[in-house]
Design goal:
single chain; mainly alpha; 4 helices; 0% strand
């Protein structure tokens, strides 16, 4: 495995993180989904490249620094995504006030409530 291939893969991941960040800021959900899938594919390819003989090359100081910088970028993406989810939740509360402070399976609404027995069938005991 050549150094160029590993450097190219790290550069592709860095570029994908930049694209994903731009699509998160631009609030384009389809681009966020496509970018997330592409980033995951690139990360899997990097892990496959690093297994075996590539592990020695990945442990060089330059590659370690680059990998740490990429992990910081991914953490920043995660924080941005969490903020975006919070904005969506707040907007949902404005549009649908019923969604506020309700658990998914709470008994407060018609949806997600446990089934009540009608009493038509009584418990049989032998």
């Amino acid at each position: 495995m050549s150094k160029n291939l590993l450097d190219t893969q790290l550069d592709c991941i860095e570029a994908q993180i930049g694209e994903l960040s731009a699509s998160l800021i631009g609030a384009d959900p389809k681009a966020v989904q496509a970018g997330g899938i592409a980033l995951q594919r690139l990360a899997v390819e990097l892990v496959q490249m690093a297994s075996g003989t590539g592990h020695d090359q990945l442990s060089s100081l330059r590659h370690v620094q680059k990998t740490k910088a990429l992990s910081v970028g991914i953490a920043a993406l995660r924080e941005t995504l969490l903020r975006r989810m919070s904005y969506v939740d707040r907007a949902l509360e404005v549009v649908m006030p019923e969604s506020r402070d309700k658990a998914t399976y709470a008994g407060g609404s018609a949806y997600g409530r446990p089934v009540r027995q009608s009493g038509a069938f009584s418990v049989l005991s032998a």
